[in-house]
Amino acid sequence: MATLLRLERVSKIYPPYIQALDRVDLEVEKGEFIFISGPSGAGKTTLLNLIFGLERPSSGRIYYAGREYGRLSRTELIRLRRKMGFVFQDFKLLPNKTVFENIYLGLEILGVSPSEAYQRVYPWLRRLGLAGKEKARVETLSGGEKQRVAIARAVVREPELILADEPTGNLDPQRTREILEILEELNAEGITVLVATHDESLYRGRHRRVLTLKGGRLVEEDV
Ligand SMILES: Nc1ncnc2c1ncn2[C@@H]1O[C@H](COP(=O)(O)OP(=O)(O)OP(=O)(O)O)[C@@H](O)[C@H]1O
Ligand SMILES: [Mg+2]
């Protein structure tokens, strides 16, 4: 199997001196499904932000398919980011836009025409229980609905890598199971998935690789 993602001694220090990540080593094979666990403040979001290239490490190196982020131009980094789908913990939906417009956004940059986008977005709206909500402005949605729009926006492009930050944090147990099943189905189709969560019940019994952040260090759990 090919290595998709590699982190070498990656540290992130926020001023004045908050060590969010401390010499993290991580190797992710193409097609893996990994949970990143750890309590609130453990550095999960920081780790995903670094992988997405939204922030730069204070030291250490990150490689995607063998290419080191520090050597990429801004344009190359943006192009690389298009291979990934990020489900943000705080959703980052565009206000004053509809559910459809928010989900379509990621397809538009890929050059997908509006009519083709329609074909791709609608099955996801149904699958995520958002059918009938496509014309609703996102600020009128409940927290759980917003979360599902954020998930739809990330998965509709069928990216190579999905980074999901606490993707079920606002959902009831039934929806939580459904979202996990969707992520597992996408993974079965070959998409690599990283899910960050503080919720142990999410990965209990799933027989997946679990990595835990403790004091900024990443530790592999025996499951
Ligand atoms: N932009 C920032 N500036 C300063 N400190 C930050 C910044 N972002 C994160 N931190 C700090 O880094 C540490 C890790 O934060 P992070 O958001 O990665 O944790 P987390 O594991 O995602 O937590 P949660 O489960 O609450 O989402 C925390 O101590 C946090 O306060
Ligand atoms: Mg977080």
From TrEMBL:
The keyword Nucleotide-binding applies. The keyword Transport applies. One of its GO terms (cellular component) is plasma membrane. Homodimer. Forms a membrane-associated complex with FtsX. It is a peripheral membrane protein. Belongs to the ABC transporter superfamily. It comes from the Bacteria. Residues 5-223 form the ABC transporter domain. It comes from Thermosulfurimonas dismutans. This is Cell division ATP-binding protein FtsE. NCBIfam families: FtsE. Pfam families: ABC_tran. Its main location: membrane. Part of the ABC transporter FtsEX involved in cellular division. Important for assembly or stability of the septal ring. GO terms for biological process: cell division. One of its GO terms (molecular function) is ATP hydrolysis activity. Keywords: ATP-binding, Cell cycle, Cell division, Cell membrane, Membrane, Nucleotide-binding, Transport. It is found in: Cell membrane.
